[in-house]
């Protein structure tokens, strides 16, 4: 004998999914930038240096004096020599008065006049060291600098965004089914 059997047949449901992807497009325009750099302000003042050279002492030591100074010095020397001459003549006169004491004043005076003292001879055309005086006053430089800040103007551009939303469509492609049979 046969035992009846139950036979089952099933079919699962199937879903169909269709998607349209979302699309996004972003553009960023460049910013408008304007830059300007004003020139810095620079002011300079200079005071020139000053060099003073005094060589009058060197010229005098080389006997190259100014006319007025040479005349003045020669007048003083001449006056001094006249006084020395008067003193010498007076001394010689006093010596002649003493002739009565047995001195031979004429012979002594003749010897002195015959052999005068040697004159001082020296090189006069070379000035002494440091006869030329120099003085230097340094110059000055005054610099005033005024910096200028740059001017920057920026116009920012907003981004351009295009967005297309996506879509998902879901459908039932196949229904589920269950078939039960009794087989004898």
From TrEMBL:
<protein>
    <recommendedName>
        <fullName>YviE</fullName>
    </recommendedName>
</protein>
<dbReference type="InterPro" id="IPR045527">
    <property type="entry name" value="DUF6470"/>
</dbReference>
<dbReference type="Pfam" id="PF20074">
    <property type="entry name" value="DUF6470"/>
</dbReference>
């Amino acid at each position: 004998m046969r035992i009846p059997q139950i036979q089952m047949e099933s079919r699962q449901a199937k879903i169909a999914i269709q998607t349209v992807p979302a699309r996004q497009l972003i553009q960023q325009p460049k910013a408008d930038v304007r830059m300007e750099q004003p020139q810095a302000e620079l002011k300079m003042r200079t005071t020139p240096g000053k060099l003073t050279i005094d060589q009058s002492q060197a010229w005098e030591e080389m006997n190259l004096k100014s006319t007025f100074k040479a005349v003045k010095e020669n007048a003083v020397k001449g006056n001094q020599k006249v006084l020395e001459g008067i003193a010498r003549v007076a001394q010689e006169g006093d010596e002649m008065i003493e002739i009565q004491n047995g001195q031979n004043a004429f012979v002594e005076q003749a010897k002195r006049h015959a052999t005068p003292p040697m004159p001082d001879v020296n090189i006069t055309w070379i000035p002494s060291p440091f006869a030329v005086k120099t003085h230097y006053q340094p110059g000055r430089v005054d610099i005033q600098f005024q910096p200028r800040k740059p001017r920057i103007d920026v116009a920012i551009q907003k981004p351009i965004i295009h967005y297309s939303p996506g879509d998902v469509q879901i459908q039932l492609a196949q229904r589920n089914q269950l078939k039960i049979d009794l087989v004898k």
